[in-house]
Amino acid sequence: MPRAKPAKIEDVAAKAGVSIMSVSRALRGVEGVSEKKRTEILKLARQMKYMPNSNARSLVVANSNLIGISLPTFAGEVFAEILSGMRGTFDSAGYSSVIDTTEYSRTAELSWVKRLLSWQPAAIILTGIDHDPETRALLQASKIPVLEIWDHTGDPIDACVGIDHFSAGELMGQHAMELGYCRPAFVTTPRGHDIRADARLEGVRSVFSGAEIRASRPPLGNAFLTGFHGTLKLIEGGTPDVIFYLNDHMAFGGMMACGQAGLQVPDQIGIVGFNGLDITGVLPVKLTTIKTPRRLMGITGARTILAKINGVSVEAAKALPVELVAGETTRPQSITN
């Protein structure tokens, strides 16, 4: 029996009852196609084995429906929301996912990548851009579509969708400087544990270039307690006028520590969080924070990797915007205490 000819984009369009342009838009993950129709087109393209660039993908990979996702941790809301956006998109397109956590270890990530490559997945998703050099070399040699999520670089392994953490730190610092703060401090993780946290700290430092920024790096643990104890340690060494935190949970712990120390927020000290988590909606004082597009990041990243699986050219590095939310934990310093 003669081998069936590969499907063309015209065949997929005819089967779906849409234009060739609509098929192209669906495969590239761009706007202009409803989610229902996009899902239908992606399923048809896969069932019909449509491959825009048949030389770019092996048949084994093209026929796989498994996507590997590596996260640093399951704790907290950030990565759960990114994962939710990704998995919903993958499920609709008929792909399954296998998930592992690295606890921020490059060695653990490398071991997971080696295991996953033996399964010949359709694609691999990593968190961040800080990897063991061997991980990068293995993935580039594999020719499997790779997405780096949550961070941003102009030189990704294959593609990345995330935020510029240095610029986010600059945005935090600029807000505080414009309000008149001049003695900033930062509560974060141990040095080198999370390069994205370090990048935000450097972003703040770039704004307060003439000021010393004390960084408190308490041992890892519960985020609320880390923020609490990290803040008390800072206060012992002299009270800053504003404290930036790795995330909103740490900022909440910091607010509790300030209260215990008799410092009123924002009258005597400013507090700035990060991520715009749900907890900010129930705090007695609205937190000043940076809102990150976590679910959108997951959806955008999933669409990007689905396009690459289908051999469609996409933007290699996409930076999503963050939003400064000016709350009630910071205020202009010209106001008399």
What does this structure look like?
- This protein is an alpha/beta fold and 337 residues long.
- It folds into three domains: 9-52, lambda repressor-like DNA-binding domains (434 Repressor (Amino-terminal Domain)); 64-163 and 294-321, Rossmann fold (3-Layer(aba) Sandwich); 165-291, Response regulator (Rossmann fold, 3-Layer(aba) Sandwich), CATH 3.40.50.2300.
- Helices cover 42% and strands 15% of the residues.
- It is built from twelve helices and twelve strands.
- The strands form three sheets. A six-stranded parallel sheet has the order 2-1-3-4-5-11, with helices on both faces. Strands 7-6-8-9 form a four-stranded parallel sheet.
Task: Describe the structure in brief.
The protein has 337 residues and is of the alpha/beta class.
Core attributes:
337 residues, 3 domains, Rossmann fold, 434 Repressor (Amino-terminal Domain), alpha/beta, 4-stranded parallel beta sheet
Q: What does the main sheet amount to?
A: 6 strands, parallel
Q: What's the CATH architecture name of the largest domain?
A: 3-Layer(aba) Sandwich
- Which residue ranges are poorly predicted, with pLDDT under 50 across at least 5 consecutive positions? 54-63
Which fold name is given in CATH as the topology of the largest domain? Rossmann fold
* CATH class wording of the largest domain: Alpha Beta
β content, as a range? 5-15%
